Amino acid sequence: MHPIDLNRRQFFKASGLAYAGWSLVGQPLMGKPAGIQPEPHIHVDAQPKFELSPYLYMQFMEPLGTTDASVDAAWDFAGDCWREDVIEISQELAPTLMRWGGCFCSYYRWKEGVGPRESRKPMQNLLWGGIYNHQVGTGEFVDFCHRIGADPLIVVNFEADGRKPWAVSPKGDIRSGDANEAAEWVAYCNDPSNALRLQHGIQKPYNVKLWQIGNETSYDPDGFDVESAAKKTLEFARAMRKADPKIQIIGWGDSGWAERMAEVAGEELQYLAFHNGFGPGGADSPLRGIEYRKDPAKTWDSLMQACRIQQEKMDEMRSQVARFNMPLAMTECHFILPGRNRCEVLSTWAAGVANARVLNVHERNGDLLKIATLADFCGTRWQNNAVMIPVPHGPSYMMPVAMVMSLYRKHTGKQAVEVLGTPENLDVTASRTGDCIYLHVVNTHRTRPVQSTFAVDGMHVTGGRVTWFDLDPEFEIFEYRPEHTFPKESQITNEMVWSFPAASVSAVELTIQSA
Hints:
By secondary structure, this protein is α/β, with parallel strands linked by helices. Among the domains are: about 10-50 and about 415-515, Golgi alpha-mannosidase II (Immunoglobulin-like); about 100-270, Alpha-Beta Barrel (TIM Barrel), CATH 3.20.20. Helices cover about 25% and strands about 25% of the residues. The chain contains 14 helices and 25 strands. It has helices at about 10-15, 70-75, 85-95, 140-150, 165, 180-190, 195-200, 225-245, 260-265, 295-305, 305-320, 350-365, 400-410, 480-485, and strands at about 35-40, 40-50, 60, 75, 80, 95-100, 125, 130, 150-155, 210-215, 250, 270-280, 330-335, 370, 375-380, 385-390, 395-400, 415-420, 425-435, 435-445, 450-455, 460-470, 490, 500, 505-515. Strands 1, 2, 18, 19, 20, 21, 22, 23, 24 and 25 form a ten-stranded mixed sheet that branches. An eight-stranded parallel sheet has the order 3-6-9-10-11-12-13-14. Helix 8 crosses helix 9.
C-alpha cells in the first residue's frame, strides 16, 4: 500500500463525482439510508462512482500511561520485542494504516525514543500519568507496522499544540517541539544518508510517507487560535517537506478550523484531520456503567444512534471544505462512554453492529473521507480498544469493533458503487473490483432475520459467498474465542437467496458478468 496520491486541486477531478450528485446522503436511526427504496432484493448499480481509500480501516497507537497499559502491555520487555500474540491478532485485524499519535505526541520528543535502549531517557506522561520508558520508539513502531502489513503515520510535536501545561513539565523539562525538530524526524526516517540513523546502525530508511501536524489543537481554549495554528502549520509543513518532498501531510481542521486552515496552509497539505466521538446521550441513556444489561432493546436503539451522529459530523466537515475539495482524515473516532474502563457495553455484539453501521457511513462518504478509524488500537482495560491484551499472559483478542473492521477490510472493493434498493431493515453499502461486487450488510433488526435476493443492473449474478457474524446482541466478548470472534463463511447456493440473521454483520461477494 502507498499513501493516496491526491492534492486538493486534483481530488474531485480524479474522483469524477460531486457529493451532491450521489443519492446516499443521509442515514436514519434504523433501517435504510435516505434515498433507498424498499425492494425484495439488494439492488446495485455496477457503475463505479469513486475510488475507496484502503485507509478507512486505520488504527492508532498511543502510550496511555496509568490509564491503560497499552503499548507497554504489547511489548515483551524480556525479549526486547513485540508480544507474538499481539502481532498475530493484529495480522488478523489487518489494519491498513497505523498512527503513532494522540495527545501523547504533544509532549513527545522523538530523539528520546531512538538509539540504544539503555540510553533512552524516560519521560513523564503528562496527560495519561506515569513514566514512559521509550522502549518503544520510532524504529519499534515502524517495525510493528511492517510486521502486520500496515503503513505508518506519525504525528509530530506541534509546539505542544499550544498547550502551556504540556510545553514544560512540572519538573522543568522542555516538552515543546518546533518545526526544525519535526523536519529532523522526517529526515531521520526517510533520508537514506541520515547521519543519526546510520549512527544507530540502521542502514535502510523507514520511508514514513504520512505525517500529521497537530493533534486536537483546537480543543484547548487557552491554546493556539486558528490563525496562529494555520501559520505554524504552514511553517512546519514547509520544513518537513524540505526534508522529504514526497511526504503526505495532514493538518488539523476540527472545531470550525478546516476552511481557514485550507486557506492559509492548504497548498502544503494533502488532508485535513478531525476527530469524533459518540457519547451516551441523555441522563436516562443505558450506555452508562452496567445499565445496558437492564433493557437490551433500549440499549440497541441507543447504540444505533452512532451512525446518525457520524453522518452529522461528516456533513459538518463537508460544508467546511466544500470550496477546497480537501480530502479528510478522521484520525480518531470511537464511542466515549462513562463507567468503569470506558463502559462494558462496548464488549457486546450490539456495539459491534453499531460500529458496522458507522463503517457504512464512512464508505458512503468515501469520495471525501480518505483516512478513518473507529477505535484506539490496543490495551488492557479500555473497552474502546480494538485489541485487548490479557496480562501477564494469555492470547490477545479482538473486540467487537475490531471484528467488524477486520471483516470489512478483508472483503471490500476498490471502487464504490450505488445501492439502489434493499429489503426493509438492511443497511447496505457496495463496492466493486473487476467482476466482483462487495456488499457490507447490517441487519438492523435486533431479533428478526431478513431474506434477500441480489440484483445488479446490467449484469448477471453468477455466484456468491457470505462471510458474517451473527452473535446474540447481548453476548459479551471477554477472551480469545475463535468460534465467536472469527466469522462464519458460506456459499450462496439456494438460487441466490440469502437470509441475513438478526443483528448480523455480513460481507457478501457476488461474481458478475455482462447480461
